Amino acid sequence: MSAPAIPVIFSPARRAMRLRRATRRQLKPDAARFLAEDMIEDTLERLAFLRHQPARALILGDGTGELALRLASGGTAAEGAADIDLEAPYPDTGFDLIVVLGLLDAVNDLPGALIHLRNALAPGGLVMAHFIGGQSLPALRAAMLAAEPDRPAARIHPLVDPRAAPGLLQRAGWKDPVVDTHTLTVRYQRLDRLVSDLRDCGLGNALAKPAAPLGKAALARARAAFAARADSDGKVSESFEIITLTGRRSLAGT
Length: 254
Fold this sequence. Notes:
The chain is built from eight helices and six strands. By secondary structure, it is of the alpha/beta class.
């Protein structure tokens, strides 16, 4: 019996395009870097806690280049890849550490991507993958529903529920799998700044069948709905749930 077809929710070409755009935008002095900075600091803290000193590391999704520099300062040969298809085997293997920042939110075959990451590790190697989860962006979701109350279009990606992640890691054969989450709250005066920050962070639309842009009237409704959630200081709190997956390849290399 043939394996069931994997639903095509995301476009690999659009996923690569949003990463390239984010990498360019990260060069701007006022670019939003809070998600990358949080993930990078979290990675370094975990490595210190685990006392894992990798000789060779692969960093995926870091448009800032900061994590590779920080690791290199400690003697790690760290390399990155700007355009990588996570749903295909990686062309190189034998890494003691692989870190993925933000890319796994938009893959069609998440179990397959996790298997490819494991296979690119050296025996005993460690992988850490950070990405936003299902409780993210409630204010933006509410604004999009208000923009098109009668026939809302799919404008925000379906996101992973962290409760499903342990089963995914087991299916992918990760050893010593750990799943945990934390939440970042960022405050905005305008919807447009939130959208700009999402693009800076590489979280633009990667849907295979993206909806048409909002019309003027719908955009005005979205902005008004977002502003209506503001606190007394005129700012709206937006939440980013960050899921972190950690695990190893067995010492036997399986």
